[in-house]
Design a protein that fits this description.
Length: about 220
């Protein structure tokens, strides 16, 4: 990949897929509505872009760990990541209860079977897109921007990718941002250990699905 192509791709992804969710809380009404009743055009667009990014990263970065006991290793990393995500969510939810901090957005949940299917697809699209962009693409690209061999650039790449993921959850309040930062650390560690996004993606998707089910039936 030429430098010009790399820069164009990086800033396009930054402007089109990373900046919008960060800017959204400052451009929309304080109490917005979040629909879980179908596949959003934004989610489908992000998923399509992430598929293209993933195809490019597959040979360069995203390589599943191979060798003996591979499936057991991936399963252990999945359970570790999923457990950490659930514990983090429980902690911040409890903290929010005692601080009386309520979600800023109104939730509209699926009411029919087909709405539930489309909602599950949207959750899968979102989890895949975030794993590709924030856990695989961003750290690698930021390292390239500042020099892959420099220790400082490697540290900055890890910190910035996690902070940007946290900032993408600003519309859900400060506790959601803190929870997302912790989740970003957990899932990024999962990607680094497995050298792939499979375990982290499944943990991320199931965590989102479980969170939604709890909100519906709570």
């Amino acid at each position: 990949m030429t430098k010009l192509k790399f820069y164009l791709e990086f800033f396009a992804i930054l402007l089109l897929f990373i900046a919008p969710p960060i800017a959204a809380p400052f451009l929309t009404a304080k109490r917005s509505v979040v629909y879980f009743t179908g596949i959003s055009p934004w989610g489908a667009l992000c998923f399509a872009a992430s598929l293209a990014v993933y195809a490019n990263l597959k040979n360069e970065f995203v390589q599943e760990k191979k060798g003996g006991f591979r499936d057991i290793f991936l399963a252990s990393q999945f359970f570790k990541a999923f457990g950490c995500l659930c514990l983090s969510a429980a902690f911040f939810e409890t903290l929010g209860f005692f601080l009386r901090l309520r979600p800023q957005a109104e939730m509209v949940f699926p009411k029919t079977f087909f709405q539930g299917v489309f909602c599950a697809a949207n959750l899968a699209f979102a989890a895949f897109s975030e794993e590709v962009i924030y856990r695989a693409y961003l750290p690698l690209s930021i390292k390239k921007l500042f020099g892959e061999e420099k220790k400082l650039s490697q540290i900055c790449a890890e910190i910035l990718s996690v902070l940007l993921f946290g900032a993408a959850h600003l519309s859900n309040g400060i506790l959601a941002v803190l929870n997302a930062i912790f989740a970003g650390l957990v899932l990024r560690n999962c990607v680094k250990k497995t050298r792939g996004i499979k375990a982290g993606f499944i943990a991320h998707f199931l965590y989102n699905a479980l969170t939604l089910l709890i909100m519906i039936f709570a």
